[in-house]
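User: Please predict the structure of the protein below. I'd like the answer in structure-token form so I can feed it into my own downstream comparison script.

Assistant: Understood. Taking the following sequence of 423 residues as input:
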Amino acid sequence: MKTGNTFLKTILILTLCVTCFGVGTGTGSVITSRLLNAEPPAEVSSQGKTPEKNTQENNSPKNGENKQNTQEKNDFENEFAGIAAEFAVSSSSSASSSDAVSVVKGTANSVVSINVLQDTTYNFGYWQVPSQTQSAGSGVIFSEDDGKIYILTNNHVVDRATGVTISIDDENTAEANFVGSDANFDLAVISVNKDKLKDASITNYTVAEFGNSDRLEVGERVVAIGNAYGEGKSATQGIISALGKQITTSEGSTLDVIQTDAAINPGNSGGALVNASSEVIGINTAKLSSYGVEGMGYSIPSNIAKTIVERIMRNKDVKETYLGIMSGITVTEDIKASYNLPTLGVYVGQVAANSPAAIAGVMSDDIIVSFGGGVITSTEDLVEAIGKTKPGDSVKITVYRGGQSKPVTVTAVMKEKQGGTNF
């Protein structure tokens, strides 16, 4: 069982860091294959003129050459027409730029820049000195009532915050209040009193229109809008690269996401991914960082976000059951064969100290194969199964350890929310 464990733990670290520290770049240009395959232009002399051909070539064609030259002319005209047509298609980039301008204008006042304060301490000799850190993110106005506007953002943007302000124009700011969150889906809701907006001279806000993310197709043009690097709102353009991708959050949950090559940078978290109709179809949340990797950003689909927002607004805070399995990876057939592991399941990389799982006897290097009577073959299975439990439930977990299968019973308890409610 110890064979390959160091490697498996390295995979765990990389998997968790993908969500926390993604880096991506924007889209590239496209060159038409027809232009690449076109005949080269005539050679130009040092005087800038086309060199004259020999006398024979410049003379009138000989017998039988008229037909050949006519065919060559027709071929050239057809080729030129094809190239012109491709230029016409390429010129649509100007139209798409105009479309992007309309999209940004139609959505910009629904997206807010978020600035966050967090209380912390640092060690100075034998003393811990109180301090504050600042961070930035983005949010989307999704609703309003007589007294407040409501903003959707990522949970990791406002988690542990002691103070939050928002801005529409990146100049005037207003204080925000925590409403609720769901850490498993990395979503949170904050609100701003309209009186505070008025006092800050913020009047140019609009409620965003949300589209149907189930109708998206790979290749659709999208625009990402957010507070990149905390420098104020900006927009980047790209396409939907893939649908139904999965990433692992810092909470260990698995999210179904939209992949896009629109640049999503630090500070864009919680911002909007917008379609050509100026509808929000995703909440930007993460990006992939690795040497040689470009254009891999991820957004939570709007339909998932709407469902979670309804729960947050209804419950004010979505309750979570806590088991104490901090990290794990799916043992696939390839991993099983490569590291001579005895079974499929979820390899446990870390168990929280004094957690229900630890107290019950679940250990690092265990492979979970059953939870609550259901077969576990992936981290997705485990997260889904934990999500179906209630506080106080007694759940039988079967783990594979040291060549034997040992049943372990643990009790799921509510996870204490850390921070996020002080502002």
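That's the full token string. The first strand starts at residue 111 and ends at 124.
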